[in-house]
């Protein structure tokens, strides 16, 4: 191939869309056009197509670039139609042709060093065709691609041989795994919690690496804190595999509600620290923040990510042990499991109606409360209230079909939480916020119920609690927990809120 031809083919395969925003738009158009598969296939196979900017991010972070990629084995073990492998082939060809124009040798190296596994035969064939199309920009030779139609869970051919394992492993929840469930439970990383298939692919990928190999994946950010990923977290820290984390936070790469992270592991790493990045949504690339020691972010088997300063503050809160005289409880509100029946603006009076507040919005309304002193009243007592008994009998079938706790009654709440605290003073708090203006903190007198959120029972005043929560420090704390919700929001649990309040009250 002449130098002129080489330059011309390089230009032909360069992206036509230059700006990151155009690339993101194009990627989403492609994703939508490829969404011909049913949701059933997506749930069972975990097939999610990867935008080119994410492919490039992972390859760059994994150092799959430059002359050093030549004569190095690389695999995508869940390659789909070849999103990663097509870019890998493109990069390999460009690097090879910078110094060598032996096309027969290039053909041989593409066949020998680039590998893929895909369980779906149709996707596997698409992948081969896509690789051939990319390679045709550089050589006319017919290439026999090493792309296997196999189950990566059962494939050991590549173990210990790969210099790079790169890709986007499938996301499949345990209840959708079907016949693969038994095979999955044989993996060490799949022993805990509600397993997702992606965590098993970390174990498969690490097994495929040689002694100096690098793994680069994008996967759900539940990797940071879920019970299912606890063995992975402990193992990669103990064996010093973890090198880089890109926290994409609220930036949703895929057309789903999944929040993702990019993780780079290296077999020859010796540092007990990571390079920590956030993500520039405008430039579509990682931005280095700082180097974090393992001990900075790995605490109680969870990865907590953020600036070192915020992590120091978070650790102080989490390690705090309150004095016994500090009395404060944070609990979940009522769980009727049938709010549209129990909670309404009823147009009649009844001794079994109480005022109630929706913690998530602060809206006040009424609630049927068939309890007295924390215990459900006999239905015969309710039958004396004609308005109420008519409602119950008209809705009995729906009420009986709820997943009521074992000790429950068909005409009672689905869960017993919050019932015993009705006659206590409470402070309601919503659990999903983006900024301090989203906080809804309301004082609830004895006799008022709370649902759709949390409530605080303590000896501290409403003003004292409100003063502690309406602070930038509280918002930083919630963000550092990395519990993401759509639209840029964060959520937190009763345990999270209680720990923060105890710490701040002690400090003050």
Automatic annotation (TrEMBL):
GO process terms (BP)? DNA modification; methylation
Claim: S-adenosyl-L-methionine is one of the keywords in the record: yes
Q: What is its EC number?
A: 2.1.1.72
| UniProt keyword annotations, A-Z | Methyltransferase, S-adenosyl-L-methionine, Transferase
Reaction equation(s) it catalyzes? a 2'-deoxyadenosine in DNA + S-adenosyl-L-methionine = an N(6)-methyl-2'-deoxyadenosine in DNA + S-adenosyl-L-homocysteine + H(+)
PROSITE patterns membership: N6_MTASE (PS00092)
| Limits of the Type II methyltransferase M.TaqI-like domain | 116-254
GO molecular function terms noted in the UniProt entry: nucleic acid binding; site-specific DNA-methyltransferase (adenine-specific) activity
Family that this chain belongs to: Belongs to the N(4)/N(6)-methyltransferase family.
- Kindly provide the name given to this protein in its UniProt entry: site-specific DNA-methyltransferase (adenine-specific)
What is the organism lineage in this UniProt record?
Answer: unclassified sequences, metagenomes, organismal metagenomes
């Amino acid at each position: 191939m002449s130098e002129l031809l080489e330059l011309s083919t390089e230009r032909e395969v360069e992206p036509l869309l230059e700006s990151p925003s155009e690339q993101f738009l194009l990627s989403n158009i492609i994703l939508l056009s490829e969404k011909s598969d049913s949701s059933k296939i997506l749930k069972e196979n975990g097939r999610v197509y990867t935008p080119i900017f994410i492919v490039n991010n992972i390859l760059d972070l994994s150092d799959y670039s430059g002359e050093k990629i030549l004569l190095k084995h690389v695999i995508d073990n869940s390659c789909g139609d070849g999103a990663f492998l097509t870019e890998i082939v493109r990069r390999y060809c460009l690097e090879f042709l910078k110094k060598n124009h032996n096309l027969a040798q290039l053909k041989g190296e593409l066949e020998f060093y680039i590998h893929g596994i895909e369980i779906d035969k149709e996707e596997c064939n698409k992948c081969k065709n896509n690789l051939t199309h990319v390679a045709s920009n550089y050589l006319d030779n017919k290439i026999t691609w090493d792309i296997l139609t196999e189950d990566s869970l059962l494939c050991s051919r590549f173990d210990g041989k790969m210099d790079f394992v790169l890709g986007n492993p499938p996301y499949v929840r345990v209840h959708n795994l079907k016949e693969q469930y038994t095979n999955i439970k044989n993996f060490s990383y799949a022993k805990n919690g509600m397993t997702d298939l992606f965590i098993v692919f970390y174990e498969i990928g690490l097994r495929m690496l040689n002694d100096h190999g690098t793994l680069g994946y994008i996967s759900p950010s539940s990797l940071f804190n879920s019970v299912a990923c606890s063995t992975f977290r402990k193992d990669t820290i103990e064996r010093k595999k973890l090198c880089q984390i890109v926290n994409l936070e609220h930036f949703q790469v895929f057309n789903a509600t999944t929040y993702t992270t990019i993780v780079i592991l290296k077999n020859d790493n010796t540092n007990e620290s990571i390079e920590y990045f956030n993500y520039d949504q405008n430039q579509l690339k990682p931005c280095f923040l700082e180097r974090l020691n393992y001990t900075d972010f790995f605490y109680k088997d969870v990865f907590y990510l953020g600036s070192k300063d915020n992590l120091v503050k978070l650790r102080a809160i989490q390690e705090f042990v309150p004095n016994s005289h500090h009395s404060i409880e944070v609990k979940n509100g009522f769980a009727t499991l049938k709010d549209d029946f129990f909670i309404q603006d009823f147009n009649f009076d009844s001794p079994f109606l109480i005022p109630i507040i929706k913690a998530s919005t602060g809206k006040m309304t009424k609630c049927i409360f068939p309890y007295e002193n924390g215990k459900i009243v006999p239905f015969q007592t309710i039958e004396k209230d004609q308005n109420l008994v008519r409602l119950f009998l008209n809705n009995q079938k729906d009420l009986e079909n709820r997943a009521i706790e074992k000790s429950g009654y068909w005409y009672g709440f689905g869960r017993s939480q919050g019932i015993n605290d009705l006659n206590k003073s409470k402070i309601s708090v919503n659990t999903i916020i983006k900024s301090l203006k989203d906080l809804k903190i309301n004082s609830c007198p004895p006799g008022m119920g709370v649902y759709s959120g949390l409530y605080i029972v303590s000896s501290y005043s409403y003003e004292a609690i409100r003063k502690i929560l309406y602070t930038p420090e509280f918002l930083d704390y919630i963000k550092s927990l990395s519990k993401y919700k759509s639209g840029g929001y964060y959520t937190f649990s009763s345990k999270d809120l209680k720990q923060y309040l105890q710490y701040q009250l002690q400090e003050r």
